[in-house]
Amino acid sequence: MNNVKEPLFHISKRGELPWYKGWLVRGCAVLLALIACAAVTMLVTGENPISIYATIWSGSFGSPRRAWVLFQNIAILLCVSLAVTPAFRMRFWNIGGEGQMLVGGLATAACMICLRDVLPNWGVILCMIVASIIAGAVWGGIPAFFKARWGTNETLFTLMMNYIATQLVAFFIIVWEVPKGAGKIGIINQQSEIGWLPVIGGQKYLLNILVVGAICLAMYVYLNFSKHGYEIAVVGESERTARYVGIKVDRVIVRTMLLSGGLCGVAGMLLVGGTDHTLTTTITAGRGFTAVMVSWLAKFNPIWMVLTSFLIVFLQRGAGEISTSFGLDQSFSDILTGIILFFIIGSEFFINYKINFRHAPKKEA
Amino acid sequence: MKKMVSILMVIAMIVCLFSATAMAEGKTLKVGFIFLHNENSTYDLNFINAATEACKKLGVESILKTNIPEGQECYEAALDLVDAGCNIVFADSFGHEDYMIQAAKECPEVEFCHATGTRAHTEGLSNYHNAFASIYEGRYLGGIAAGLKLNELIESGAITEDQAKLGYIGAFTYAEVISGYTSFFLGARSVCPSATMEVTFTGSWYDEALEKEGAAKLIADNCVVISEHADSMGAPTACEAANIPFVFYNGSAADACPNTYIVASRINWEPYFEFIINAVQNGEAIPADWTGTLETGSVELLTLNEQAAAPGTAEAIEAAEAAMKAGELHVFDTATFTKDGAALESYMADVDTDEAYTGDTEVVADGYFHESEFRSAPYFDLQIDGITLLDTAF
Lengths: 365, 394
Description:
Number of domains of chain B: 2
Order of helices and strands of chain A: EHHHHHHHHHHHHHE
Structural class of chain A: mainly alpha
CATH class of the domain at 71-325 in chain A: Mainly Alpha
Oligomer: heterodimer
Largest sheet of chain B: 7 strands, mixed
Strand content of chain B: 15-25%
CATH architecture of the domain at 71-325 in chain A: Orthogonal Bundle
Largest sheet of chain A: 2 strands, antiparallel
Distance between the termini of chain A: 19 Å
CATH architecture of the largest domain in chain B: 3-Layer(aba) Sandwich
Number of helices of chain B: 11
CATH topology of the domain at 71-325 in chain A: ABC transporter involved in vitamin B12 uptake, BtuC
CATH superfamily of the largest domain in chain B: Response regulator
CATH topology of the largest domain in chain B: Rossmann fold
Strand order of the largest sheet of chain A: 1-2
Order of helices and strands of chain B: HEHEHEHEHEHEHEHEHEEHEEHEEEEEEE
Helix content of chain B: 25-40%
Number of helices of chain A: 13
Strand content of chain A: under 5%
Helix content of chain A: over 70%
């Protein structure tokens, strides 16, 4: 027995951690990420760490406008994260948020361009809302239908749908480009502002923030206090149990994905109709994928997602500000964002597993 | 939970207020620059260098933002520069225009200047301005160098007169590019009357692989001198490898391609930057359109590579340049080209941009096409005889 060599360390699964310990680990990860970012920036620029942190802070809160932009970005990211969450709770890995958002944006732009001479402004906006929800729902519903009917792999399927959406958008950009040959749509209806979501309180980002806030609360209630939410949880735990208690699993899958896709479509609509008023293939800026992380880190809890999306957007904007104010290339902010995400994702490992080091052999008495 | 969120919001608001008051405005002039790519693109590098030089020379502060796409990001970057206390915001790419106009509408106290745009003279905003340069004059001079090279090849017996074919790699099929390759061609034909030209398009302003492929295609098609209007080193590397002489744009390639690089034309943006900075400092108005010329130092030729150029090139270019400055030589002289076999007597150009490119202004008078006079951005978009377009997909 004593001859067996124990390895220097081994990894074992942790039991359930109390929630505050989990957040402690995550907090440490963010702290370490900030230290690592400062270290890398110091090496590159020779700036002192305090000014680096001050710059990160000013990237988000340097001016009222930056704060609004921050909250707008949080709102859109949160919206997509909320959208993919019901699917995740069901263990349906919808990584097609990107594509569902894009087709939502495409439908919105189509309404703004094709209906501007036909309908009054409120009619265009109404059509935008309906069309974007339908477009997103269809984009999410197709993989769900195939999964429910033929058991196809939803991860691959939703991923592939992203590429189709990107190509569709690229095609329509050429159809609607202004001027011909520019390869860009530019700002849609810049003069008439038809199809632009109304500005409330003089703040153009406020409407988006309020809408997403409402969606967040509604999603919390839907998942935790409704019959649908319960069915989603049961299907997620075990499809067989769900079937045994009489839940129609196929129907739940399709229904939930229609909701998930539809909400992604709304996010696309808020982006195109609410703030950007244009359509590009990169308008989603990878949010469909970042949303997976936001949702996961928050343990699929809509309220915690406010915090996780804040964290990610805050750090991203800080990283962007570092590269501008220290005269570095914008690619440098991608490097910093990469470092930050590495630490945050890595922290999940330490929450789920622990490392046991070899103990020094005890002396025999 | 709601309590926590509201506390967070309150903290955020307080911090915002503090940071806002902390950002006191500096006294020196501040200029913000928005660039589409970074210094790896010859197009943007040309702007970046000019911006840094001009600000250093006049002692004003500058903030540079690179890699800003032609979308909402441009609008946000412009407003962010305004918040940082910039008195002038400049953007360098055509697709930035809508977003610059949007920002200009919201910040009437800041001057917004945009290179290559077309809408300033019709938009009616007193703080939004376009700028360009008569780069077609520079390309015409580059064309003379290419034409003399063709003559040299004919004289040495390497090609016959009928084989004097130029090749040109363009980005897109709009006026800026058409005006460019036509002036290059006319410059070449002014010294080599039998010259013809083939043009291929990449559909991108910066795609090293596609530009390289385009050059390879033209070389395979027996083009003997190449020029281009796109932003990477793709075409020069292909030409150097195949030992085909070429005329470059925006930067000298004398070091990278010593055997084949002849000459390059470029727009020097420093005069414009100095002009707008001085105007704001002195409280003078900036015109809606500003066209830099050979005279203002905005259009210039870079190092002539004697090793690759034909003998007498420097003298020929100098003579043509002097004639242009004196107003004796016009690039788009209607006596020097035909369209569909007939001389051009009248042309309605699309000066006031609209979606369908409807002609609205008569631009032919006094025997030449008045390019870049009614607005700064080029509007010469005619297909003249002697030039073959290989593909027009873009």
